[in-house]
Amino acid sequence: MDEKGCYRGQLGPTATDLSFRILSKIQETSMQSKATTVEEYLSNLPDDRRAAVQAVRSLILANLDADFEEGMQYGMIGYYVPHRIFPAGYHCNPAEPLPFAGLASQKNHMSLYLMCHYMVEQEGRWFREAWQQTGKKLDMGKSCIRFKTLDDLALEVIAEAIRRVPAKAHVDFYLAARNASTPAPRPAREKSAAKKASKAAAVKKTAAKKARSPKGR
Question: For residue 80, which of 115, 29, 111, 42 has the smallest C-alpha distance?
């Protein structure tokens, strides 16, 4: 884990920040497209997949706050807070805008990623309860909502989920999660004492090993 709270080689932040561990999952499990535009991504899909993904895309765009933008992100169709709204970007890679949602065609299913509903407990609870009331089965993993056909989705719930979180609220939720997962810096004296204690323990452990070895007897 580096000084930004990110695991090296992954996209997710600290283990205590549940919100963006999702991105490491995307990197590990998604079929990342090399398409550079949404139109190119859609054109590369089989007809049935294209129709379903386009329908969900249209639903998202119809309910998305104007401060979000759409584009290719992490090899899929992404919806994010652009740098003009949130200049800091995503903390593990500031060159990337802050992700909000994602839409992808995988090998065995299609996936819808709703970052805020993993990041904010009350939003996630609302989402599950609202979905349950529709009578549809929710196939929801740790990082995505999986679906094979458009009929699998509670579209009205997804529309409301998108409307409920404007860009400013998403940034606020993200910053709160980041602050909660970032440990307070220790005073210099405390760091020095901890370092000395660790060194002393290492010396003691080495001495004990020598005492137990045949040469040390």
Answer: 115
Residues in the chain: 217
Query: Strand pairing partners for 140?
Result: 145
Output the DSSP codes for 24-51: HHHHHHS-----SSHHHHHHTS-HHHHH
- DSSP letters for 61-105: HHHS-TT-EEEEETTEEEEEE-TTT-TT-BTTBTTSPEEEEEEEE
Lowest mean pLDDT among 42-51, 66-75, 187-196: 187-196
Reported pTM: 0.75
Instruction: Identify whether the C-beta of residue 83 lies closer than 8 Å to the C-beta of residue 70.
Output: no
Angstrom distance (rounded) from CA 103 to CA 112: 5
Q: Given this structure, which CATH class describes domain 18-181?
A: alpha beta
* Domains of the chain, residue spans: 18-181, 186-217
